[in-house]
């Protein structure tokens, strides 16, 4: 009778070999590190053996282009059970295999590639630092590709009784969407992605259609949701009619675009530009027909870069 050979599995290998396997996983590959960790308690013990396991996951998030959300701070992390390790695991378990074209492994690879380029050209160190804001680096910064695809829900929502409800002021991520209308709060990997590479710690914004947008600042690097939250604060403020009028003046056929949703539609009797001005009362109203084109660095100052949040019809 032939001898029976038991099958050797990964966890049957000695720790020395397992440490070598772990060491061969790229530091930029957050998804593989999380999956390797979760493969078996024996493997997770290898990560726990790190001199400072939390520092390992903080650096792993940094190299994956992932930071804190607008409601978080390093101080809060140190005082709670919510850690960089949990942030890494949440992002991968929820989004690491997401099939949305702007999320999942596509986004992870994009972030890691941008961070690797910054490390290679010396604009940021390999380990987790404070975010940078030197003029030379700002001039060469790459704005995250997601900045050109964020949209917002319509302002007024009617319930079955005909009452108007408004978005919750705190529900920034639930109100904003990726392409195809997928809510941003369903994509933690997208919300936590750095909004610029190299990451910057402060952004100042040009006024948008006459409305001043407050600067945003985060020592650990601004993320996509930080900028979305800054824009969100301006969405529903009442715009001066002259500001809207100035905005529309230079956009050919914009008035018609507000009313003609489908090719072949006709304007109904009584249509006028004045009606359009009455309809376009807020930035959200305008973004319903003229989406956000993206974020552009226009200048640098001692207080950080100056950025323009541009709409598609603007010539910037």
What are the SSEs and their pairings?
Elements: H1 15-23, H2 30-38, H3 41-48, H4 53-63, H5 74-78, H6 84-95, H7 104-120, H8 135-139, E1 142-143, E2 151-152, E3 157-158, E4 164-165, H9 172-175, E5 176-177, H10 188-192, E6 196-197, E7 202-205, E8 216-217, H11 224-235, H12 241-249, H13 254-259, H14 273-279, H15 283-287, E9 292-301, E10 304-311
Parallel strand pairs: 7-10
Antiparallel strand pairs: 1-6, 2-5, 3-4, 7-8, 9-10
Descriptive notes:
Helices cover 39% and strands 11% of the residues. Helix 4 (53-63) crosses helix 6. The strands form 4 sheets. Strands 8-7-10-9 form a 4-stranded mixed β-sheet. The chain has a two-stranded antiparallel sheet with strand order 1-6. Mean pLDDT is 77; it is low at 155-169, 261-265 and 267-271. The chain has 15 helices and 10 strands.
